[in-house]
Amino acid sequence: MLSSRQHWTLILNGKSAGNELVREAVKALRDRGVELSVRVTWEAGDVDRYVAEAVLAKVDTIVAAGGDGTLSEVANALAQQELGADELPSLGLIPLGTANDFATATQIPTEPLAALELIATQRPCLIDLIRVQTRDSIRWFANLASGGFGTQVTVETPEGMKRLLGGLAYLLTGLAKIGSGNVELTPVTLSGPDFSWQGGCLALGIGNGCQAGGGQVLCPDARLDDGLIDLTVIPELEESALSVTGVAMKEGRTAALDQIAVRTKLPWLELRSPKPMTLNLDGEPVESDTFRIECWPGRARIHLPAGCGLVQQA
User: What's the DSSP call for residue 56?
Assistant: First the structure.
C-alpha cells in the first residue's frame, strides 16, 4: 500500500455525489494512510480549476470519479498544463458512468474500492493523448472521438434511457434510427501522411482507445501508447447493406464492420466538411468544419491493471 506521504485529489462527478460506495472507498484509503481530498463538480470550469489547484499543490495523483467524459475532462485539464507528463500528477479512474468504455477496454474495476486499490498498487504508465484543434478551440481526449451517425446516437439517447438500460440504450437508439431510415450522412474529407479519403460518412471513429458508445469496438487495433491515431470510417452504404449491418450489430457480430470499414493508423489527421459537423470527444461535443487531430505520445501517466492489452508497457 502507498505511504502516508501520498496526497491524492479525487474529482467526483456531481451526479455521483451521493454514491455511498465511493464514500466508503475514500474512507478506507484514508484509514490506510493516503491523504485524499475530494472535490465535487457542479458547473462548467470546475474540473479545470480543481486540476490546476492539484498541480499547484503538487499532489501525487488525481483520480477521476465518473464516466468517460469525466476522465477526458481531467486528462484535458492536465494536458493544458505547461508541464511534462513526469512533472504532472498521475491519473487514476473510478468508473461511475453509463458506458464506461475506457474502463471496460482497459479492465479497470468498476467497484470503487477495487479501483482505488489498483491506483495504490500499480505504477502509472505513459499513454498518448489526442489533441483536437478547430478554428477557435483546442481540446484533448483520452479514449475515442466519434462523428457522423454514432455521434447523433450519443447526443439523441435520452438520459432516462441511459440510466435504465446503461450501454444498451445507445444500441437501441441507433437501431431505431436505422429502422426509420432517419440517418443523416456527413460528407467529409480526411487527409494525413500518405492517406486521403472523401465521401459520405455514416460513422467515424478516431481512437486512442478502442471502443465507445456502450461497447461498440470502432478501433479494434488501437493502443494507448503507440504514438498513433486509429481511424475507422464507416462509409455510405446501400440500404440493403445498412440493414444487414444493423442486424449484425444487434446480434453482437461486430465483425460485420470489418467488411465495410476503412481503417488506418496515423500520427495526425485533418478533417474537413462543407458544413459544421460535430465530433464527440469522449462525451464532449465539439462543432467545426475543420479539425486538426494529432497524437501526442506519452502526454499522461495513468494507473492501469497489470497486463492491460491496450498498452505495450503494462
Answer: H
